[in-house]
Amino acid sequence: MMSNLLSGQQIFAESVPKFVDTEWLAENIEKENIKIIDATIIFANPEGEFIESGYDLYLERHIPGAIFADLIAANVQDAPIPFTYPGEEQMKTFIASLGIQDSDYVVLYDSGPQYDVDFKADSWASRLAWQLEAAGLKQVSVLQGGINKWLEEERPVETGDNQPESAPELSLQEVADKFVDQSQVIEALEDDRYLIIDVLDEAQFSGEVAPFGEDRAGHIPGAKNIFYGSLTDESGDLLDESMLKERFDEIGALDEDKHVIVYCGFGVAASYVARAIESLGQDNVSVYDGSLQEWTENHDLPLEK
């Protein structure tokens, strides 16, 4: 009998894709080394909470076999910028706590970008995927459309909690360029080998809306703008590859000689767009971890409108 203990490289004839669809997951869900991770975060809910764990929602319904990963716990605690990447050692401990081993193939999903919006994006799952890859995991994909699409297709779910067994020590090597810091972005402003992309909506990009203060509205000088909520169809799947390529080609993001730096408010939506760019073959992509929240707090740094 053929074993169903398959690695991501065996499942896919070529490289592991950055995104998979619900049909693929439904067909492969019972393969033993596939780890399904629910990375749901509740963002800007009606009760006024800015950010909270999606654990309670996970308990109500999740994809069969899924383990909940608390993205808040996966980052620096009490940091001034939400979701600050904690570094290699903390990420290794976090990965092991999820029962993930080096050879596992990890599929992450979430429950949408934030409460009550009219667009779809796999932002939270993409942020955690970006961190897992930064820590050295190589077989990681994000489920397009997340659990919302899964439910719309009337696929099975389960309730309660799946407790993982802690994995043995991991032999991972951190990938240095997945994140850049403020000093690297400042250097990039004067270097035409870099392309900076702002993925917030046009109102924030133009300075019409100023979430970080009226005197600090706008975008990092020279940045191009592609709104992260404009990359999917109504189902939550990414747009057709040719359409995505056209969008990113227009701003030079697929130029193999460019190093692309992506930012948003605090590094979550940026991870989704960075992942989409990688899926089109661009290997030189980094996320500015502190993003616009950190940039606007330093009044010596310029902004454009």
From TrEMBL:
<dbReference type="GO" id="GO:0004792">
    <property type="term" value="F:thiosulfate-cyanide sulfurtransferase activity"/>
</dbReference>
<protein>
    <recommendedName>
        <fullName>Rhodanese domain-containing protein</fullName>
    </recommendedName>
</protein>
<keyword id="KW-0808">Transferase</keyword>
<keyword id="KW-0677">Repeat</keyword>
<feature type="domain" description="Rhodanese">
    <location>
        <begin position="190"/>
        <end position="304"/>
    </location>
</feature>
<dbReference type="InterPro" id="IPR045078">
    <property type="entry name" value="TST/MPST-like"/>
</dbReference>
<dbReference type="Pfam" id="PF00581">
    <property type="entry name" value="Rhodanese"/>
</dbReference>
<dbReference type="InterPro" id="IPR001763">
    <property type="entry name" value="Rhodanese-like_dom"/>
</dbReference>
<dbReference type="InterPro" id="IPR036873">
    <property type="entry name" value="Rhodanese-like_dom_sf"/>
</dbReference>
<feature type="domain" description="Rhodanese">
    <location>
        <begin position="30"/>
        <end position="159"/>
    </location>
</feature>
